[in-house]
Amino acid sequence: MKAVTYDAYGGPEQLRITEQPKPKVGPGEILVKVRRASVNPVDWKILAGELDPVMQVYFPVTPGWDVAGVVEATGFDVPEFAPGDEVLAYARRDFIHDGTFAEYATVPARAATKKPQGLNWDEAASLPLAGLTAYQVLQRMAPKRGETLLVHAATGGVGLHAVQIARDMGLRVIGTASEKNHDYLRNLGVEPVAYGEGLVQRVKALAPEGVDLVADFIGGVRDETLAVLRQGTGRHASITDDTVAERGGHWVWVRPDRDDLAVLAEMAASGRLNVPIAKVFPLEETAEAFRLSQEGHTRGKIVIRVSD
């Protein structure tokens, strides 16, 4: 089968289209004929070797943890899926080797859910990692309807999911973003504030008694987070800064969870959650997709089109 691979750590220039064996489908797994995958920052961070201290890597590596496609075959004891089912998944494994930027990918059944009819392939592939990250961060803080949430990097890939999920939960949402994205956030029901110097004062002008919750999707904002939290009851979480645990916060590493993903897929299919798409690249242009993601200026997800 055709797959994107790399044989050593480095930058996008390491990525090649190669022929690889069609993966075996083991017990508790499904074999997916891939329609779409999507790029996440973790993909090029793995390529750069940044996760080498914590995850085992076996070269050649096929990158990609997000996937949407059609079940080709099932392994032993997978009663919940059958060939022909349309699925999406956060297909992370406990090691790095065979990812989703390929014509076929094996996925643990526990990580996949069926794709609702109202969700197109681009959206389905874009939802898993970013959507689950946002959802699990919010759940970890145990939000209550009517509380106020501050989202750092509200127009990033995870942030855009988080602000919409939070609004659906009945939260008041304040989001940091550059001025050019403020109208976009207002249209989502979010109160925008500019990031950078003076952030604490801007947030306190909107929430004088402090915010109840802070979700950090960018890092480097721990002091600002603590300064705007409501005294005594405020909760905070980060996906980038493990030091928040030292100050009573949650450091969250997203987990594959088909039940959570099913909730998000239904939200998106029903129109309660918009999954923004920045650009779609063919599999052969995956290196360009990585470069665009590394620039950090896109609003929405970058999709890899594998087949139609």
UniProtKB/TrEMBL annotation:
Protein's UniProt name: Oxidoreductase
Domain of life: Bacteria
Name of a matching Pfam family: ADH_N
InterPro entries recorded: ADH-like_N, ER, GroES-like_sf, NAD(P)-bd_dom_sf, YIM1/Zinc_Alcohol_DH_Fams
MF-aspect GO terms: oxidoreductase activity
SUPFAM superfamilies cross-referenced by the UniProt entry: GroES-like, NAD(P)-binding Rossmann-fold domains
Domain Enoyl reductase (ER) per the UniProt entry, residue ranges: 10-304
